[in-house]
Write a structure and sequence with these properties.
Blueprint (H helix, E strand, L loop, with lengths): L19 E5 L3 H7 L4 H22 L3 E8 L7 H16 L10 E6 L7 H14 L5 E9 L1 H17 L10 H6 L11 E4 L18 E4 L9 H13 L8
Parallel strand pairs: 1-2, 1-5, 2-4, 3-4, 5-6
The structure holds 3-methylbut-3-enyl trihydrogen diphosphate (2 copies) and magnesium ion.
Length: 246
């Protein structure tokens, strides 16, 4: 009537929630720098933010949330920063009963465990064991995770099976590779979110991302609100996933 169209309201479709959302929790350091604070404060605020996002994702009906917490390349950082990150992780694992333990959420860690300290490895085992019967959301922490290392290890396992005469080379297929990844029982991510203004995967879920939808934002991870998360999901719902078809 007035010559302009009213913009359609963006609403979340509760019947089309991505089953598996993966987040590259990036930008903690720059968040802190902007405020003249040490990087470790950025990491603590980032971890705090994850608590909100976990609740929101669980309530929305996301079944798997995989978050990139520490890459195989992050050991290159100053020892002080790595130590602060490991301490933060340890504190969260120690507080598991008060945090994730109270929710219908399962905790799993995806990554190369050998480089982690015995203490952290023990705590991870305890938390995974305590929550393995939970049927709500699965929170997968990618810790000392590298997509290339994950694929290398799958290749090694399969090669060993061939050597031992348990597998024929002709039988190696995509499913066998998937079955030998950390995510063997988790569907591929539907949506991968990267805040902080970077447009790269940084070695995250390289095999699994074949048909994932990507969503980027300039916001640093500690400022990534549940509203932004909802925005990402609405955008995802507006995409046309074709998987190579028409
Ligand atoms: C992500 O934030 C956390 C980890 C990689 C452990 P960064 O520490 O990478 O923050 P920026 O990218 O330097 O801002
Ligand atoms: C990716 O972020 C790893 C995590 C968020 C844990 P980085 O900050 O390490 O990635 P690059 O170095 O910018 O690619
Ligand atoms: Mg970064």
């Amino acid at each position: 009537m007035f010559g302009f169209k009213k913009r359609a309201k963006r609403v979340l479709d509760k019947n089309n929630i991505p089953k598996h959302v993966a987040i590259i929790m990036d930008g903690n350091g720059r968040w802190a720098k902007k405020r003249g604070l040490p990087r470790s404060v950025g990491h603590s605020m980032g971890a705090k933010n994850l608590e909100n996002i976990v609740d929101f994702a669980g309530n929305m009906g996301v079944k798997y949330l995989t978050v990139y917490a520490f890459s195989t390349e992050n050991w290159k950082r100053p020892k002080e920063e790595v130590d602060a990150l490991m301490k933060l992780l340890k504190d969260y694992l120690l507080d598991f009963d008060n945090l994730l333990g109270k929710k219908d959420a399962r905790l799993r860690v995806f990554g190369h465990r050998e480089e982690l300290s015995d203490e952290i490895n023990e705590l991870i085992d305890i938390c995974e064991e305590k929550s393995k019967h939970k049927t709500g959301i699965s929170i997968n922490i990618a810790l000392n995770y590298g997509g290339r290392l994950e694929i290398c290890q799958a290749v090694k396992k399969i090669a060993q099976n061939v050597k031992d005469g348990n597998v024929n080379v002709e039988d190696i297929d995509e499913k066998m590779i998937s079955d030998n990844l950390y995510t063997y029982d988790v569907p591929d991510p539907d949506l991968i979110i990267r805040p902080s203004g970077e447009y790269r995967l940084s070695n995250f879920l390289l095999w699994q991302c074949a048909y994932s939808e990507f969503w980027y934002s300039d916001i640093f991870w500690p400022d990534f609100t549940t509203k932004k998360f909802e925005d990402a999901i609405i955008d995802y719902q507006l995409r046309n996933r074709r998987f190579g078809g028409v």
